[in-house]
Amino acid sequence: MTKETLLEIKDLHACVGEKEILKGLSLTIPMGEVHAIMGPNGSGKSTLSNVIAGHPAYEVTGGQILFKGQDLLAMTPDERANSGVFLAFQYPTELPGVGTALFLKTALNAKRRFQGFPDLDAVGFMKRLKPRAQALGITDDMLKRPVNVGFSGGEKKKLETFQMAFLEPDFCILDEMDSGLDIDALRTVSEAVNVMREAHRSFLLITHYQRLLDYIVPDYIHIMVNGRIVDSGDKTLALKLEEKGYEDYK
Amino acid sequence: MKITNNLCLITQDGQTKTVNVSSEGLRLVVPDGKELNLSALVFDGTFSVRVVLAGAEAKCRLSCVYLSGRKSENKIRFDVQHQAGNTYSEQIVRGILTDRAKASFEGTIRIPKDSQKCDASQNHRAVVLSDAASVTAIPELEIYADDVKCAHGSAIGSLDKTQLFYLMSRGVPADVAKKMLLRAFVRDVLDDSFEKYVDEWMGEHA
After folding, report:
1. Residue A169: closest CA among A123, A243, A108
2. Tell me, what's the ipTM?
3. What string of H, E and C letters represents the secondary structure of B64-103?
4. Dihedral sign, CA of A137, A142, A146, A148?
5. Burial class of B145 by CB neighbour count within 10 A (0 to 12, 13 to 18, 19+)
6. Quick one: DSSP state of residue A250?
7. Using the beta-carbon criterion (under 8 Å), do A92 and B166 form an inter-chain contact?
8. Chain A partners of B183 at a C-beta cutoff of 8 Å?
9. Could you say which of A165, B35, B125, B193 is the most buried, measured as most Cβ atoms within 10 Å of its Cβ?
10. How many CA atoms, within 13 angstroms, populate the side-chain half-sphere of residue A191?
């Protein structure tokens, strides 16, 4: 049985300022699969994740992205999120003065309103929050602090993963989730991702290193060089890369 | 309800009072060892405060948020005179401007020659939401003593686009995200009791 397609990117071109970063990228991700994109610095991996999420600094100059069959590029960033797209940022933004708990509640209720549900009350909110916070080591103190302010690099990555678990998106992009994480934190975060692997949810992992893929084993690996996917294969591709680097693709 | 009155809370000697602010402004003297806390929310017109720190260990913290909408013209004037040595002052001002509003902040710190070991700071930040609105900051530092600490800064800009995007990427619609960030911008500076007036103003202007 063929799986239903969740995300389909066709011949995508995107620029930052005058510079073209994505140069005709195509990628299809079926439901329930984990795909990884690996590539050298400057190949456009982070640009791809930002374009999918709708970052205003990137201009799409050609191509198409279909998400659940809908034109993703026609949607605002909040519409994309509420339709099920989630980007765990490489460098999460600090929001001074915005309490983390209020932030989570606002985000969750925005999604519920978008889907036509009433806002969740305080009890429902805590019920949803507690077990996920515990699993990721998110303390009450962290929830009281402003979003990402005064958080260590590891805490920020945990909070990103926690937001993902909390909002239950259908498509999760993890942009260099492993950077700045020690081995214990990497294990905790990977475990949180693995428990979310379900038939209706897909993941796109963006990483430099094979290490992350030991913890979150992908179904497919794509190699990205100079704004395009140049090779795809199963998880053994990462081992080949580890050995030979990106030289063959340049 | 229409908000027209400027609000000002003053805490001195442990007692808090609400003060009606006239355009002539306030003049307050802080004697030695005493502390003055002033928190003001200003919607329109001129708000002017002069403080004299009259004796050693006198302290003042002046905080003000101005919310300027439509065609309002706001003038915020803080003037702190460090009459004695070993006195401390802090001026914190945050502003939000929309439509065709105009605002200015004039902050003066005076430390005469004999007032050594003083610590004075002044910080002004404004968010301008419309191209037709404008804001000016005029810091005036008259420091004649040489053994003092003095810091001042002013920043005027639009809402942070990265912060806005981060909120939107979590599903928060643009207008809600904008209000969250504006509330956060003034929250640290303002007395909690003013929050409902800020919300009311945002509902109408932001």
Report:
1. A108
2. 0.95
3. EEEEECCCCEEEEEEEEEECCCCCEEEEEEEEEECCCCEE
4. negative
5. middle
6. -
7. yes
8. 97
9. A165
10. 11
